[in-house]
Each structure stands twice: as structure tokens, then as C-alpha cells.
Amino acid sequence: MVWTPLHAKIHRTIRSRHLFERNQRLLIAVSGGQDSLCLIKLLLDLQSKWGWYLGIAHCDHRWRSDSEANANHVENLAKTWGISFYLETANKAINSEAAARDWRYQALSAIAQANNYQYIVTGHTASDRAETLLYNLIRGTGADGLQALTWQRSLITGIILVRPLLEITRIETEQFCKEFKLPIWEDSTNQDLQYARNRIRQELIPYLRDNFNPQVESALAQTAELLQAEVEYLEKAAQQLREKAMGIGYEEDSLTPLVLLRLNRRVLQNTPLALQRRVMRQVLQQIMTDAASFEHIEKLTALIIAPNRSQTDPFPGGAIAQVEGDWICLK
């Protein structure tokens, strides 16, 4: 086996970030593109050091005429490498990026659960992280959106999604595939500029690289990494503050059944605005099915210093927030 600097980097990353344990079962999501082929090759080469059991999963969205041939290509690679292969095919073509992503994670989770895999591993790179940051920034988001892709997160109970390549750019995965002559399957949809992410990848990132920073992808990925730690800290601090605000002076018998939640304004009034907004977003997450917008959070936050009896117009779902003395009551 040829040991490259990329092998060493991924080995260190997995160990230092505690992404996997030894002797675990890893399900690798392989599309056939350069990033996923780079990922599976690296993990195969590291397998002897870690004692992993590896499996390959491929999801066929049925949105390209060559999708079945693509699936067969990945299956043949799995057979060549002697790895278990799992295929999930959509019942009908999925034409939305968001719907495809949701379906893909559901399919991968089901495969992992049925076959006793503890981890689902994807080939998201620093380039994907940079593109996601830009995509969310353009649409409008706070730090949570800008932190973009994270190293790991729980998908369902007992199964963790892991992204070991978040410090590797797409240029590096391409070079790696060329070096080892890995048979990349070119996805024609990656060139379709009707998708905003493709325009960011094909037009915006190259422009920023040529005119502002040759290392723009790594720079943006590092920004997302910094924001991830800060978001995690702020979320925990906001949760503690919310629990304190809901707990002070709480008398269950004095509440009517119409009151969903109460927050003590005195607890919140002298805290930083960043924490106030996060508390309100956490509260709205409990009463709304969809994510709270900036406007929803702002009108609830404004009640912290509003006159008595002030109230909001209804939130989606019908709840109204009203000031009652020291309390903000959601009814």
C-alpha cells in the first residue's frame, strides 16, 4: 500500500477528533464521484490499522438516465474490493435537492439499522463546507447556518453520521483519484447550472479563488469550523438561561390550560442579545413545526422590554405571546 500525506492526514483527523472507535462497523455512502471514491480508498487502506468492518451503500435517486448504470458501477467496485454492497432505489424520480437529501439519509439510516452499522460515513469535503456556507449566507442565516456541515451528528438512535474529509478540498480528492487511477463516475447533474449549488461551485468559487483568495475554500471551511464551536457554546448557554427563565416563580396551579410556556422577563433582561435571541428560538422550536424565521424571533425577543399587556400577532400554528407583568406567556 502506498502511504500518502492524505492517508496520514485522515488517520490523524480520525484519531484526534475521535470520529470512530476501533473495530466498528462503518457504512460508506458511495456515489461513484471523486469525493466518495477518495473516501472509500482511504478507509480501505486504513482498515488494517483500525480493524473496521466496511460496507458500501449507494442511493439511486432515479433522476438521471444513467443512474442504474451508475449503481452497477459502484456495485462492481464493491465486489472488486470484497466489500458488502447495499443499494436503495427511489420509488419515483426525486427532483428536489432537499427532498433527495432527506430521502438519502432516511435510506442510509435504514440500511445501517438493518445491518448493524454504527456509523454512516460520507465524503463531504472542505469544498462542500465552503459552498454550503456561501449558499446559506446568500439565502440569509445566522451563525448556525454558516457553521454548515459538521464533523459528526446523530442521525437516529445508535447511528452517527461522520464526515472525515472536511479538511480536504475537492482539488485534493481529484488528485488522489488520479494518483490511484480510481474510476470516477461523472455525474452530469453536477454541471447543471439551474441548481444554485452548482452555480456556486462552477462560477462563484472560481471567481473568488481567482480574484480574492486562491485558498478561498479552505478559508471558508475554517470559518465554518470556528463557528461550529461557538454555536455549540451559545446553544448550551441559551438552554441553561431558558431553563432558568422558565423555572423561576413557576407555579403550576396558577396556570390555565391555555398557557403553553412562560418565561420570566427579569431573568432575560440583563443578558446579551445573542443569548436572548437563542432562547426565543429554542422556545419557538417547541411550539412551531417549521423553523422559526428571523422575524418570528425578533418579535418574541422584543417582548422582553415591552410594556405590560403587549402581545404578538399569531405565530404559525396559532400561538400568541403576551406580556403579563414579569412574564412572557405563550398561549
Written overview of the protein:
It is a single chain. This protein is elongated. With 331 residues, it is of the alpha/beta class. The chain has helices at residues 5-16, 34-50, 67-81, 97-114, 126-139, 143-146, 170-179, 196-211, 216-247, 265-269, 273-287, 294-301; strands spanning 25-29, 53-60, 84-89, 119-121, 152-156, 159-162, 261-264, 321-324, 327-330. Helices cover 50% and strands 13% of the residues. The strands form 2 sheets. Strands 3-2-1-4-6-5 form a 6-stranded mixed beta sheet, with helices on both faces. It has a 3-stranded antiparallel beta sheet with strand order 7-9-8.
Task: Sum up the structure in keywords.
alpha/beta, 9 strands, 331 residues, 6-stranded mixed β-sheet
Task: Break the fold down into its secondary structure elements and pairings.
Layout: H1 5-16, E1 25-29, H2 34-50, E2 53-60, H3 67-81, E3 84-89, H4 97-114, E4 119-121, H5 126-139, H6 143-146, E5 152-156, E6 159-162, H7 170-179, H8 196-211, H9 216-247, E7 261-264, H10 265-269, H11 273-287, H12 294-301, E8 321-324, E9 327-330
Parallel strand pairs: 1-2, 1-4, 2-3, 4-6
Antiparallel strand pairs: 5-6, 7-9, 8-9
Helix pairs in contact: 2-7, 5-8, 5-9, 9-11, 11-12
How are helices and strands ordered from N to C? HEHEHEHEHHEEHHHEHHHEE
Low-confidence stretches: 249-257
Biggest sheet layout: 6 strands, mixed
**How many angstroms separate the termini?**
64 Å
Quantity of strands, as a count:
9
β-sheet strand percentage: 5-15%
Mean pLDDT: 90
Helix % is: 40-55%
Report strand order across the widest sheet: 3-2-1-4-6-5
Derived from helix and strand composition plus strand pairing, the structural class reads alpha/beta
Shape: elongated
Task: Round the Cα radius of gyration to an integer and report it.
Answer: 24 Å
